[in-house]
Amino acid sequence: MTKTYYLRASYAWSDQSVYIIATPSPAARNTFFYVQEIGHFFALSDYFTERERLHSYLILYTVSGKGSLTYRGKKYKLSKGHVFYIDCREYQYYEQDGTEPWEILWVHFNGICCNGYYNQFSEHNSPVVEIIPESNIPANLWRLLEVHTRKDAGMEPVASQIITDMLTELLLCVKIPGNWASPGSIPAFIKKTVELVDKRYAEKLTLDLLAAEVSVNKYHLLKQFKKYTGCTPNQYLINIRINEAKEMLIHTAMTVKEIAHHSGFEHVSHFINIFRKQEGTTPLAFRQMWQQQS
């Protein structure tokens, strides 16, 4: 028996609060991220929402005041600058938690790519992020609310762009905690490792060699490189080699064997297997596809 949507709530918010329900067009449902509901609440002491099995995702930002969120068996305190991002199919309970109104900006949204984005974000484990002062998330929520208040022409693609910007920022927040907005804070040894791989990708590069070149422990390099780039040094090396190989396949008449050698692969069979895994086709088929398009 399929379980049904569950909701228990107290809609205790002030008269100055704004609440908008949106009905996306079929095109938006099939193409974009789209808004289902959006609002700006001044939640009062009795305000709470308890919900489960709603096919929606929720981003909620605390402008001022305090609240709390219970999600995946944990309770989180929320105050100014906190954002939470959750999958509303899972059980959630959030409420006002203080003497002053809890001022929040929030949006329920969906779209064909939502699950993939959320899975990337939820690897962080905590649904709550404390954003930095330079964050664009508050401004984007205000803009999204304004767009749906005015119902401008082109509202749906604009809304999709805004949601994409917020999701991208949230992913960067958790992939590079505390550093996503400040490239200068990336450790020098990570920058140097990236530069080494970019310049010497055709050589036989190992984790031991890279660690020795940048004078750090190889396990520390592995952990920190993945933290700041989202992949391991070996994954980054393979991506660079495949990119170089694709350029040679498109713009030169070199054989597949020659390209394998020049892009850093010792054996052509290994190159073909890696290329197929990355691109879903063989190097030769990739070249033929591009020749047919030119």
UniProtKB/TrEMBL annotation:
UniProt keyword terms in alphabetical order: DNA-binding, Transcription, Transcription regulation
Residue span(s) of domain HTH araC/xylS-type: 191-289
GO molecular function terms listed in the Swiss-Prot or TrEMBL record: DNA-binding transcription factor activity; sequence-specific DNA binding
InterPro entries reported for this sequence: AraC-bd, HTH_AraC, HTH_AraC-typ_CS
Keyword Nucleotide-binding on entry: no
UniProt-recorded name of the protein: HTH-type transcriptional activator RhaS
Pfam families found in the cross-reference section: AraC_binding (PF02311), HTH_18 (PF12833)
Record-linked PANTHER family: ARAC-FAMILY TRANSCRIPTIONAL REGULATOR, HTH-TYPE TRANSCRIPTIONAL ACTIVATOR RHAS
